[in-house]
Specification:
Mean pLDDT: 94
Oligomer: single chain
Helix content: 40-55%
Largest sheet: 8 strands, parallel, barrel
Strand order of the largest sheet: 1-2-3-4-5-6-7-8
Order of helices and strands: HEHEHHEHEHEHHEHEEHH
Number of helices: 11
Number of strands: 8
């Protein structure tokens, strides 16, 4: 049974646990720069994810794999400067944690020290167990990520729904329980069947944030550029576009171009 909504001046990992216990849904969006972070934070979003999706929407890469640790730190530091209330979660990029737990810890420490981010997120379950444990032992909060893990796209070969088969679903459930036991403060579930996602969320005391995982989880995350309609090629079933900025911004640029070419801009009131 939900209780009265608590007002938070600053969201922490403890806040998210309280929100789950109180039945309050958790909102999460991506940001990669100061201006976007200010807009999202001012609107009351609980968690801002500095996602490795910056590789796609900011740099134009086909996958998330090319983005570097230095680039993630740059984006994260920009977001932190624009944030007053939201919890800032920063993705560990591909290659910064998979092969060596010591390297994983070094990468996480660099993000925390150089960007000012509050927590880190990494993909995978039992495969990255030692990296998760080493980072947690250093006092750095960790958000897990299961289901479709985009850094493993060449292993999967597709961005289709994960854990539809029993074996993969059982592994996902075990990984989620283990991640809670290891000390992760939350888990993202991406593109998994809604019934499975709800089962996982109900089995954990830590929040489960979904993207393409149905409404039975504890919160939702979208890529802000997709939600604002700044992108147009990406059309998954789970995406709800709240604006069509691609068209609106294109129209504005066209009008500006026309006004410059016709000498209509600047007019007399727009000059000194």
């Amino acid at each position: 049974m939900s209780t009265a909504k608590k007002e938070y001046k600053r969201i922490t990992v403890k806040s998210l646990t309280e929100m789950k216990a109180n039945g309050e849904k958790i909102s999460m969006l991506t940001a990669y720069d100061y201006t976007m972070a200010k807009i999202i934070d001012s609107a009351g979003i609980d968690v801002i994810l500095v996602g490795d999706s910056a590789s796609n929407v900011m740099a134009g890469h086909e996958t998330t794999l090319p983005i570097t640790l230095d680039q993630m730190i740059y984006h994260a530091s920009s977001v932190v400067r624009g944030t007053e209330r939201a919890l800032v979660v920063v993705d560990l990029p591909f290659g910064s944690y998979q092969s060596d737990p010591k390297e994983a810890l070094r990468s996480a420490i660099r993000i925390m020290k150089e960007s000012g981010g509050h927590t880190i997120k990494l993909e995978g379950g039992s495969e990255v167990k030692e990296s998760i444990k080493r980072i947690l032992n250093a006092g750095i909060p960790v958000m897990g990520h299961l289901g479709l893990t985009p850094q493993s796209i060449y292993k999967f070969g597709t961005y289709s729904v994960r854990a539809k088969e029993e074996d993969e679903a059982e592994k996902l459930k075990k990984d989620a329980l283990d991640m809670e036991r290891w000390g992760c403060f939350a888990i993202v579930l991406e593109k998994v069947p809604a019934a499975l996602a709800k089962e996982v969320a109900d089995s954990l005391s830590i929040p489960v944030i979904g993207i393409g995982a149905g409404g039975g989880v504890d919160g939702q995350v979208l890529v802000s550029h997709d939600m604002f309609g700044m992108t147009y090629e990406f059309e998954p079933r789970f995406l709800r576009r709240y604006m069509n900025l691609y068209e609106d911004m294109g129209n504005a640029v066209t009008r500006y171009n026309d006004d410059v070419k016709s000498s209509d801009f600047p007019n007399d009131s727009e000059q000194y």
